[in-house]
Amino acid sequence: MSKTLIFAILVSAAALLGCPGITNAEETKSAMTTETNALPKPEKSGLLPINGLTYYYAIYGKGEPLLLLHGGLGTTDMFAPLLPKLAENRTIIGVDLQGHGRTALGERPFSLEAMGDDMADIVKALGYDKVDVMGYSLGGGVAFRMAVQHPEAVRRLVLVSTGYAADGFYAEMRGQQAQVSAAAADFMKDTPMYKSYMAVAPRPQDFPKLLDALGNFMRQDYDYSADVAKLKMPVMLAYGDSDMYRPEHEIKFYQMLGGGLKDAGWMRENLSQNRLAILPNRTHYDVFFAPELTAAALPFLNGETKVKTWDEVVSETE
């Protein structure tokens, strides 16, 4: 396997899995390491034995609980620029997913369904009956499965850069993604994904195994369209306007949730409970730390639907 091909594979894998892209790594690193974006000290953190794995979790802030799930080859730390704002009036529960960050890969097969079950068990083990959930990319897939499989545990759901089927990706990415494997490990040693993994992983030697697990995962052809209707809780879909998902897939997802099917009406009488946010000038690689994401997600998570009417705006100017 040539180094050129490995590089192409890693770029496409980064796009699918949600880690910062190799080509914009310095921009992302700068955005996530300034003094104002430093990750706050957690109120509580630790390890939980869940279904054969040992998950790392960290809790920040106080208020309504929000489970925050990161993208592939990342950790909760990738939300550092947004976490202070999210934690102002909320309890943020960050979990490092299977094989990521401080959670060891273990010997269990890597699947969204299993991790969806794990998240419900983690929430229960931490003493919460129901939480809001926000997941990005890989974490969005886990959040989707948690909400489908354990709807009683999810109050509101935000899916960031998340699709419902493999055909939602641009076609040219799929072939390269399928080639991700342990063979790429040596070529990744200078990347931020590798360095961040080595800094905190309980078993650094498992990095090639993680790439194999992710490669096997990406080679699967999945379609969860039949499960979308099971999402009865309010759902927000959020994407960059230049995301890795085809725009028609994003719109179809929203329509399957009951949104975008008719005009909302003068009095908003036909307004769906679900929301679609398309953030301008954002891509899959940078949407997860965009301030616009919190500006869109927090009112939704807080159940805020009231907006000023035209009459109210006019009266304020008179």
UniProtKB/TrEMBL annotation:
Domain AB hydrolase-1: residue ranges: 65-163
Superkingdom classification of source: Bacteria
Pfam (any one): Abhydrolase_1
UniProt xrefs under InterPro entries: AB_hydrolase_1 (IPR000073), AB_hydrolase_fold (IPR029058), AB_hydrolase_sf (IPR050266)
UniProt keyword NAD, yes or no: no
UniProt keyword Signal present: yes
Alphabetized Gene3D superfamilies for the sequence: alpha/beta hydrolase
Keyword set, alphabetical order: Signal
Stretch forming the signal peptide: 1-25
The name this protein goes by in its record: Pimeloyl-ACP methyl ester carboxylesterase
Source organism per UniProt: Rhizobium loti (Mesorhizobium loti)
